[in-house]
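In the design runs reported in the main text, the only information available to the sequence generator was the tokenized backbone. The following block is the verbatim input for one such run; it is reproduced so that readers can re-run the procedure and compare outputs position by position.
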């Protein structure tokens, strides 16, 4: 049967982004002008969505992010905000934050009116809202690979300190090919990969001591980097 002029079929949902795969590309208007993910190649990016402008929880997050902006920049990491509100709304809100808190927002805020970016990154959860994004945050590395995803409900604010710590942890694991334990902070000991041979395990234990590794056993050794 010819269905050329029949009703259009619903489009399948976009796949949810996955860790250690290329971050979904996008180009969108922002408070700093048109931007695209490709503009940030060679730098880390924290892309974070908020449900709406002029909301109390979002305001506390934006103030905290602005206060830590220089620390993110020192790590070669840029911040990108996003919501489905318009550019005029974003600009008005940025001015309101400056007037109320005395804080200038130094990073761009994407106006995702079509919700294209939100859907590409799985930011819209119908159980929370069909028209707003949840509090999602994505850490994208300097090769445009998605390295971490965090989703929060609309009524719970994020920890900016944790976002900063997460970027530092990812950069440390990449640079030294190690893992970071629970609650790791820069300067803490990191976990070495387990040895893959008996000889390497013995060597690891023999090198343990004040000037070498700190080993609980052959498979769990730490050091400072």
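Verbatim output:
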């Amino acid at each position: 049967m010819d269905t050329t002029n029949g009703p259009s079929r619903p489009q399948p949902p976009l796949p949810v982004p996955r860790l250690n795969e290329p971050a979904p590309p996008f180009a969108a208007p922002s408070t700093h002008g048109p931007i695209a993910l490709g503009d940030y190649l060679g730098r880390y990016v924290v892309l974070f969505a908020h449900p709406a402008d002029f909301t109390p929880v979002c305001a506390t997050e934006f103030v905290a992010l602005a206060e830590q902006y220089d620390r993110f920049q020192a790590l070669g990491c840029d911040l990108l905000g996003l919501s489905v509100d318009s550019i005029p709304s974003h600009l008005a809100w940025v001015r309101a934050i400056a007037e109320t808190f005395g804080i200038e927002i130094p990073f761009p805020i994407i106006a995702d009116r079509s919700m294209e970016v939100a859907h590409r990154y799985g930011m819209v959860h119908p159980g929370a809202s069909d028209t707003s994004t949840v509090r999602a945050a994505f850490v994208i590395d300097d090769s445009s690979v998605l390295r971490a995803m965090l989703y929060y409900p609309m009524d719970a604010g994020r920890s900016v300190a944790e976002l900063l710590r997460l970027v530092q942890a990812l950069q440390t694991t990449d640079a030294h090919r190690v893992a970071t334990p629970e609650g790791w902070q820069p300067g803490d000991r990191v976990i070495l990969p387990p040895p893959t041979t008996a000889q390497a395990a013995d060597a690891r234990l023999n090198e343990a001591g004040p000037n070498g590794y700190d080993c609980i056993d052959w498979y769990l050794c730490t050091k400072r980097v």
